Amino acid sequence: MLNTFQQERHAMLPETTHDESSRQEFVKSFKQYVQNKMLPNLHPAYSAQVAEFEKEHNRLPKDRREIRSIMVNDPAFRTYASANRVSQELQWESVLTSIERQLPELNAKAKELSAASGAELLIDPDFETPRYITSLDIHCMPGGYAGEVCEDDVSTGALYDRGVYLYAMGYMGPHNDDLGRSVGNYIKRNLAGFTPTKILDMGCTVGHSTLPFKEAFPEAEVTGIDVAAPQLRYAHARAQAMGAEVSFQQRDAAHTGYEDNSFDLIVSHILLHETSGKAMPQIFKECHRILKPGGVMIHADLPPFDHSDLFSEFILDNETYYNNEPFWGPMRDMDQIQLAINAGFAADQVSFDQAPMAILEFAAAQEKGYEEEAVAAVADREFEAGEFAPGGGWEVLIAHKSNEAGGNS
User: Fold this and answer.
1) How confident is the model at residue 375 (pLDDT cuts 50, 70, 90)?
2) Distance CA 348, CA 219 (A)
């Protein structure tokens, strides 16, 4: 069933047999059913449980944790949570088959494409991947972000590329790049006269959100960094396959090793909730250190919990409990504005805003070139709790470094 944009093929994307493709389309449709049909049906059960709680305690539940305590045994919620977890596991399984079948060819193709690129690929053989990445399979992705099964492996990069498309049910666009496109559009519309020449994308994985910045600012030197070598190898080859000259380097966003005042623009896209309580404040400090005076830091992620209603908080926090995202909830409890101030940014230069989803704007414009059914499906999109970009926009934390600021904070 065609329910969203189809992922556009490129040379690094694993080929699929008819059966493999059908299974992946089933998983995508199943995930849509869970979000669009099962999730809305939780509202009556939620209302009933809250009413019972109020009757017993003479007050409403005070936070998402109390909501969880009264909902965790509710049959409707248990059915939804189970189906959601199963859909996540099926997502990865449906992609793994095609990758395992052609992994030697994918690794060889990545080497060939990377060798033809004029941009740098830097993999550090002595790099120590942070424990918060290696201690579990984030998103339930087999092997996690950084797992390697052979020399010069790109398997988890290939898994992430196709898996993200299924996870987002196609709503990240044909290149899975809606986050980068949305932030790039936001910069052009809201930061008049700002034309960065050196751009850093932190936690870039396979470069989905990195490449749009090369398109938006073609004269800029764009670099993506990540802690996972397989993601970077795949990202570099993917960029070459898509005609983009972008450098990728294995570095830790909390300790990049770059010189002070190195970049005009530093961005990240759903990076922060993949880090830790210790790493996140350090990332903000590192951004301030390596930004040039007058530079801009933009982190795009989901909004803090204090921006949501209790039902949405409870549903969104399922990622913490059921999808191997241990920092998902704690990150959204942290005062990011204060973290940025502590890192050296002036209080009046730090704020939250929303970057409209580029894919929704595209669909609303009814541009030609894609299937009419897909355009209409995106244009009519209704966002529910439990999905990314509620309300049709990405939450962005923006901080401007003072023109007088030095390199060290």
Assistant:
1) very low
2) 30
CATH topology of domain 1-409: Rossmann fold (3.40.50)
The ranges assigned to domains in the chain are 1-409
* pTM, two decimal places: 0.93
List all residues 6 or more positions away from 201 whose beta carbon is below 8 Å from its beta carbon: 180, 207, 209, 210, 213, 222, 223, 224, 225, 267, 268, 269
**pLDDT over 90 (residue 69):** yes
Q: Is 248 exposed, middle or buried (0-12, 13-18, 19+ CB in 10 A)?
A: buried
Angle at the Cα of 185 (from 181 to 188), degrees rounded to 5? 140
Cα–Cα distance, 94 to 97 (Å, whole number): 6
Beta strand ranges found along 194-309 (DSSP E): 198-202, 221-226, 247-250, 263-269, 291-301
Task: State the DSSP code for 117.
Answer: -
Tens digit of each residue's pLDDT (9 = 90 or more) over 301-331:
877 777 778 998 899 899 999 999 999 899 9
Residue whose pair of structure tokens reads 């922060």 in the numeric block: 272
Percent of the chain with pLDDT over 90: 81
* Per-residue pLDDT reduced to its tens digit, 391-402: 678 999 999 999
> How far apart, in whole angstroms, are the C-alpha atoms of residue 275 and residue 326?
9
